[in-house]
Amino acid sequence: MEYSYAQYAAQMAAQLLAIDSPTGFTARAARWVLEAFSGLGFEARLTTKGGVLVDLGGSQGENGLLLEAHTDTLGAMVAEVKENGRLRLTNLGGMSPNNAEAENVRVYTRGGKVLEGTCQLCNASVHVNGDYATAKRSFDTLEVVLDENTASAQETRALGVETGDMVCFEPRTRITSTGYIKSRFLDDKLSVGILLGLARYLKEQGVTPARHVWVHVTVYEEVGHGGAASVPQGVTEAISVDMGCVGDGLTCTERQVSICAKDSGGPYSYEVVGRLIAAAKAQGSDYAVDVYPHYGSDVEATLGAGYDLRHGLIGPGVYASHGYERSHMDGVFNTLKLLAGYVTMEQA
Fold first, then answer.
1. Angle of helix 186-204 relative to helix 329-343, nearest 10 degrees?
2. Quick one: which of 332, 338, 320, 340 has its CA closest to 175?
3. Closest Cα partner for 184 from 294, 100, 91, 246?
4. Residue 237 in contact with residue 309, Cβ under 8 Å?
5. What sign results for the dihedral spanned by CA atoms 24, 27, 32, 33?
6. Residues 6+ apart with CB under 8 A from 233
7. Of 60, 112, 203, 337, which residue is the least packed, with the fewest Cβ within 10 Å?
8. CA distance 324 to 185
9. 147, 184, 154, 187: which is closest to 168 by C-alpha?
10. 3-class DSSP assignment, residue 89
């Protein structure tokens, strides 16, 4: 496989990262994903739930493979229009207040307006607030200061802002000259880009998977039920293509593909993990096998919904998960090589 497919995957991820899509507010991102796969010549459709199901082809039979990634991200929702005109938030997914402070946001009103603002600690001026350094950060002590001339709840509501409006955090995406990919929400838009890279590779190289392969880009992973539906008939195995963890006690780096043996939901299929390792070795893909201490994936939601299948989890190494995340083009490339080898591997 040529490195250009990794570059394409990163470019597509960057385009998707520019589309705000916190969980529950994913229609635009899903439409972009559908059009991207369709543009490569693959059959793709929207699910009732709002995800995208793509048929990558391959031999028909009862041993189909489903690759799952998600385009929903962390974010927030307006919980209260405060008397001072500012906004109290409630988090969507695992958004941490410590990673939300001092970030630029966009507030989407149901009337169609998009208002800019900043998420700040209440009384955020260090020269005024003597307790700034020790103040507890929570979504009750943070607020959104809109970039509008408003100082009351009435004035803010006159702008169209109400409880339930979506608050999206600026991703700040950068791809450096040294190959590092930095952004919020690489989890999991980077892997959506990787699956687009795989699809382009299969199409351009005329590669037919050894078994029927589908992609499901889900839209509720961050709240735990993204992969709980839309498994095509004949699928016996599902693999989450999500971020690989990087941190103390783990061996994976941002330049590798991570194969997860176990996370907080329990062990992944011993047989699937073994075949993933074999595929990585056969493709010369630089990989690590790790146990993730605080993690759950789409494929566990699939199992929890009652589907009878084997499961696995892989992804490019990503540092600073749920914060300002970082990966590397080499990690993208190693993930692509593993996937290309795995979908063409003959099953025992």
1. 50
2. 332
3. 100
4. yes
5. positive
6. none
7. 112
8. 8
9. 184
10. strand
Q: Which residue matches tokens 């176990």?
A: 262
Percent composition of the chain: helix, strand, coil (DSSP 3-state, to 5): 25, 30, 45
CB 332, CB 190: distance < 8 Å: yes
Partnered with residue 316 across adjacent β-strands are 257
Residue 264 is encoded by which pair of tokens? 């907080």
Q: Which two tokens stand for residue 246?
A: 């990087």
> Which residues are catalytically annotated?
221
For the chain of 348 residues, list the mean pLDDT of each consecutive stretch of 10.
Answer: 98 98 98 98 98 94 93 98 98 96 98 98 96 96 98 98 98 98 98 98 97 98 97 97 98 98 97 98 98 97 97 98 98 98 87
pLDDT, tens digit, for every residue of 278-333? 999 999 999 999 999 999 999 999 999 999 999 999 999 999 999 999 999 999 99
For the record, the structure tokens of 87 come out as 């906004």
Question: 343: which 2 tokens?
Answer: 């979908």
Q: How far apart are CA 201 and CA 210, in angstroms?
A: 15
Neighbour-count burial for 80-94, b at 16+ CB within 10 Å, e otherwise: ebeeebbbbbebbbe
Instruction: Name which of 279, 298, 283 is nearest 231 in CA terms.
Output: 298
pLDDT tens, position by position, 13-52: 999 999 999 999 999 999 999 999 999 999 999 999 999 9
0.90 surpassed by pTM: yes
